[in-house]
Design goal:
Blueprint (H helix, E strand, L loop, with lengths): L5 E3 L2 E6 L4 E5 L10 H7 L4 E5 L13 H15 L4 E6 L1 H12 L4 E7 L19 H9 L10 H11 L2 H16 L13 E6 L7 H10 L3 E6 L6 H4 L1 H13 L10
Parallel strand pairs: 3-4, 3-5, 5-6, 6-7, 7-8
Antiparallel strand pairs: 1-2, 2-4
Length: 259
């Protein structure tokens, strides 16, 4: 399904459905297509929201995990969301963690999948090799357990980004920021129910990272998915959605209906 991109002031986003907001934060090479199955599944019961994170629009000083977390704060405030169910993949999970540590009052639940924030074998310094599509394809394939998930469309998207010198500089800035911004000593402060959904074959944020998140975040549960890499919501959407549905059902206030 095609979704309309809405705009309010400087914010571009998708918003589908009604009910409590389910806000989805994409990763460094993320796109709306990453969440297509998730949006379709949950928009019957939630207001599913995907803000376009300004990965390449911020000045270089603010092109950091903290800068993106401030953007999310401004977006959630501008939209007037409360009781937010926040979900982040990869860098988006890291941004969500920084946000919830500063503004816990807005967040009802947290879901992390392949999140940075503790350790990541990232696509940082060596990743953006401009002009070499085979290299980009191999690197993109590493995101998944099944390399066939790295479709021509996806590889072309990443190739276009890495062929832009300014975007490459900002990718490196964000990747270095993620490595520097280790949250190990702060995660015990997160009190919201937290769901960790991880691919057992994630080579970017391996399963031991998920185990560490589970140990540090007090009210958390961990689900490991076999034959799955760094983006479970893309690679195994049916299994991912069932796990997330069971978690959210425990903490979701259904929209009241009139008889």
């Amino acid at each position: 399904m095609k979704y309309q991109i809405k705009q309010q002031d400087k914010f571009k986003f998708i918003e589908v459905g009604s009910g409590e907001p389910l806000v989805l934060l994409h990763g460094l090479f993320g796109a709306l297509s990453n969440f297509r199955d998730l949006i379709d599944y949950f928009s019957t019961r939630f207001r599913v929201v995907v803000p376009m994170l300004p990965l390449f629009e911020l000045d270089i000083f603010h092109t950091t995990v903290g800068g993106l977390a401030k953007f999310v704060h401004r977006f959630i405030d501008a939209r007037g969301y409360n009781n937010v169910h926040l979900l982040g993949n990869s860098l988006g999970g890291h941004v969500g963690l920084v946000y919830i540590l500063k503004h816990p009052e807005k967040i009802k639940t947290l879901t992390l999948t392949g999140s940075s924030g503790l350790f990541e074998s990232g696509m940082g310094d060596s990743y953006p090799k401009r002009g070499n599509k085979d290299y980009i394809r191999k690197k993109t394939e590493l995101t998944f357990y099944d390399p066939a998930m790295a479709t021509d469309e996806l590889v072309n998207e990443v190739f276009e980004i890495t062929n832009n010198r300014i975007k490459v500089i900002k990718i490196i800035s964000l990747a270095k920021s993620a490595i520097r911004n280790n949250l190990g000593q702060e995660l015990t402060r997160i009190k919201q129910p937290t769901c960790l959904i991880w691919g057992k074959n994630d080579t970017i944020t391996p399963p031991f990272v998920a185990e560490e998140f589970k140990k540090l975040i007090p009210n958390s549960e961990l689900h490991l998915i076999d034959k799955c890499g760094h983006a479970p919501m893309m690679e195994v959407p049916e299994e991912f959605n069932v796990i997330l549905d069971q978690f959210l059902s425990k903490h979701h206030q259904p929209v009241s209906t009139l008889a």
